[in-house]
Amino acid sequence: MSNVIIVESPNKIKKIREITGASVYATVGHFADLPNNEMGVNMETYEPHFLINPDKADNVEKIISACDGQKVYIASDADREGYAIGMQIYERIKDTAAECWRLELREITEKGIAEAMAVATLWEETNFKFYDAFLGRRVVDRLSGFILSPQASQTLKGKFSVGRVQSPAVRIIVDRDREIKNFKPTPFFTVSAKLAGAEKLFIAQFDGYEGETKSFKTKEEAETAIESVQLAKYATVEKVEKKVATRSPRPPFTTVDLQAAASISLSIAPEKTMQLAQGLFEAGLITYHRTDTVRLCDEFLQESAEFVMKTFGAEYVPEKPKKHVSKNSQADAHEAIRPTHLHSFSELPGKIEEAKLSADHDKLYTLIFKRAVASMMSDATFDSTSYKFDIGGLPFKASGSVPKFAGWMELYKEETEDESDEKEQTLPDLSEGDNCEKKSIDIESKMTKAPGRYTEASLVKHLEKLGIGRPSTYASIIGRIKSAGYVSIEKKKLVASSTGEQLIDFLNNDGHSWIIDYATTANMEEYLDKVADGIDGATWQAFAKSTHEKMGFFIPVVREARENKAPSEKQIAMAQSIAEKKGIKLPDSALESGFEMSKWLEKNMSKPTEPVGKCKCGGDVKEWDKSFQCSACKATIWKEFLGKKITKTQAVNLLNGKTISLSGLKSKAGKEFDAKAVLKDGKIELIFDKGGKK
């Protein structure tokens, strides 16, 4: 019995195979889903009917066949969607695989895979309710798509889609745009003094405003209030406050923080950030990139301390390792996003080149690398100084700071979206009682500002704050509302389109405001978490029913088929083989429609029959729809070879090292010929009699 590892992405296959020596297969993401052009959900029980994607049917059969009699590790991604893919594979192999294990890969390295295998769990002992949460999510999304989306499209005379998470995201942008359009700026006035002391010019701000506005309503009010200041020649220092301020490093990246930082620092959209991070993860360069924890493992704490000591010096290593704690204590079972190995900065480009990744991968990897290491470095320190002045009997204040020790900021400079006009200033060294010359008094006219538009980075953070969606979905949500035309990007800001406004107005005015209510959406996510945790009696069926009730039990509008696509040649060949083997008729509807073909294949794809013979290794030879395969060594004979059907007897003989005779073979040119054949290195090799030819 050998090991089989099943992953989602084909890009992982080579590296995992090299590390483990196992047979590795990829589902290529979701391979089964609800049908495109019908509800696919029983409206009484809410049971979904998943169909195998026609383009992935061959691959699924290959995976099922490979798992027969083997120890199988299902290593789909370690999130809800990944578990769902794993469950759908498990349901198809549980009766024929020798063992099925859940393998959660946090990093694709030799160490990471070994550690994951050491704590792998038998699939039947995993939390099946995690799959229930997926069912609730998928069914409710389908109800929204097939009930609310057609209503919106019919009412608004266009193509509109309504989503449990995407629609609240559109509302956020629409509401902010309208807030900006309706904003009426009002004037206000501030007072500052330009002072000179110890041969240095600096600014002190008036500190005697009444109320919380920290300003005057009119210029006349400001002039009257500071009349005595105009006559004064000096500013007297009344109080000096000096202290050493510290600034701790930011924690390592979570999924949300990575998307936000990449958007601000690298101008990379969240959906692209996730694609790049996926590539880095598959190359074994970073840990799993869908996480809401800031915890780092003890091994990395030690490794980073040694790296910082060697690269920057002992003073940059804190006395005690930094302990970053997640808001969600349960999340700390996992890790933050970090590099899997630390190496010199000069090696960073080489790692990307070795993995055959792009310049954007390089930028994101560098950002992740620096943030993770910086999070473990000493605090930055500043000499912070504040002076309080008396000018003509009125209070003024000047503040400033001077960097003392760079600490973590030696490595990582965090960029923000703060658009504040205030600049930090360097102050002279003054003592109480010192006088500074008053150079001028300035009354500055300003206008209140409308709130700023959301950027992709700030929208991601706001969605997280509201509890809408999940970190792993934010990138796809933003990508979806952009591609649907509900929002656009203008000068790096998200702007609502007229169609986006139309959609939100429809939902607000047509009895569907619940789906864009932030609290309701957050509560739905919380309920799905309860389903996954198996608490408070939460079930996915109750979730689907309650959501359907909010829709008023509208009758679903049946969508027109997206495309009347004919089945592929591979599908037809597979179906004909199954029909011939089972002695059943292949319906005309399946030959005309890819959708009907997919349903027929899902229903009729069979599991292996009783053994048809023994392989030379001693394993049973089993017959599949398109092949004969040894359940032990996995040697495979495909049923069709150069236009010739291979029989059970011929297949068993080949698997036992015997030579067989084949007649009526067809060459590439279409000519028929006869030959003998033997199995060599897993492939059928032809042997020609003297004078024979292809």
Structural features, described:
With 694 residues, the protein is α+β, with helices and mostly antiparallel strands. It starts with a strand and ends in a 7-residue tail after the last strand. 36% of the residues are buried. The radius of gyration is 33 Å and the shape is elongated. Helix content is 38%, strand content 20%. Residues 557-563 have low confidence and may be disordered. The protein has five domains: 1-126, 3-Layer(aba) Sandwich (Rossmann fold); 134-182 and 452-550, Topoisomerase I, domain 2; 187-248 and 382-447, Topoisomerase I, domain 3; 255-374, Topoisomerase I, domain 4 (Orthogonal Bundle); 613-687, no CATH class. The chain has a six-stranded antiparallel barrel. The protein is built from 22 helices and 24 strands.
State the helix count: 22
Mean pLDDT level? 89
In helices, the fraction of residues equals 25-40%
Regions with pLDDT < 50 over 5+ consecutive residues?
557-563
Distance between the termini: 39 Å
Biggest sheet: strands side by side, in what order? 8-9-12-11-10-13
- Which range does the strand content fall in? 15-25%
Secondary structure category: alpha+beta
Query: Quick one: CATH class of the largest domain?
Result: Mainly Alpha
Question: Rounded to an integer, what's the Rg over CA atoms?
Answer: 33 Å
Can you tell me the CATH topology of the largest domain? Topoisomerase I, domain 2
What is the H level of CATH, i.e. the homologous superfamily of the largest domain?
Topoisomerase I, domain 2
Main sheet specs: 6 strands, antiparallel, barrel
Q: Give the count of structural domains.
A: 5
